[in-house]
């Protein structure tokens, strides 16, 4: 089976800077700035993950487990401190709402801008433009600057552009919670349609019932480590402590 995503031994740490008391800061300065006023947070620790073409995978775990950080590495938004990430085919998705959108541009201009960022040609965007606007339910607001959009309108347009790129690999991070319920259902139906077409899907969500209905495989992370990788119902049961 063709590999769509290959993550090999990736690690990522962030530096957390803490605001200390004036006294602690003064002592630190007197000692010649010895010691560190910050600490390191290990978001991912030597993580391996292989996803085959057409698989539907949920990344699960509590807050701070590393699932969103892993998804950002797969998307290319983040670069690992060590290890490698490889993907095959067009990768698109919603990692952060409206990433790639410019607030001072209209919805129309942002469709072209974001479509180009996601790898579509101008001709492809033009061909799919009416369909993108119709799916997003933006209507007459398509020529309004997006800084005047509600978060729901912003999300609808971002999601619509992403799904219309016809990606081989589609990534979704938690942001379905932003839209209203009818549009959430529409998004879920579209994601299921992509999965049925054999697209590779990786989802991060706290909604265990939702991912159980969309994904076949669950990968559970805990403090940056993969603690379980197997059937979705077993992953969900593990997370629920059943």
Please characterize this protein's 3D structure.
- The protein is an alpha/beta fold.
- It has one domain (47-240): P-loop containing nucleotide triphosphate hydrolases (Rossmann fold, 3-Layer(aba) Sandwich).
- The protein contains eight helices and nine strands.
- The protein has a six-stranded mixed beta sheet, sandwiched between helices. Strands 2-1-4 form a three-stranded antiparallel beta sheet.
- Helix 3 packs across helix 4, helix 3 packs across helix 5 and helix 4 (122-136) packs across helix 5.
- The protein is globular.
What are the salient characteristics of this protein?
single chain; 242 residues; alpha/beta; Rossmann fold; 3-stranded antiparallel beta sheet; 9 strands; AAA+_ATPase; ATP binding; ABC transporter ATP-binding protein; ABC_transporter-like_ATP-bd; nucleotide-binding
Number of strands: 9
Terminal Cα separation, in Å? 33 Å
Q: Could you say how many structural domains there are in total?
A: 1
The main sheet comes to:
6 strands, mixed
Instruction: Pick out the low-confidence regions.
Output: none
Principal-axes shape call? globular
Helix content: 25-40%
What proportion strand? 25-35%
GO molecular function, one term: ATP binding
Family: Belongs to the ABC transporter superfamily.
Organism: Arthrobacter livingstonensis
Protein name: ABC transporter ATP-binding protein
At a glance:
The protein is α/β, with parallel strands linked by helices and 242 residues long. The protein contains eight helices and nine strands. GO terms for molecular function: ABC-type transporter activity; ATP binding; ATP hydrolysis activity.
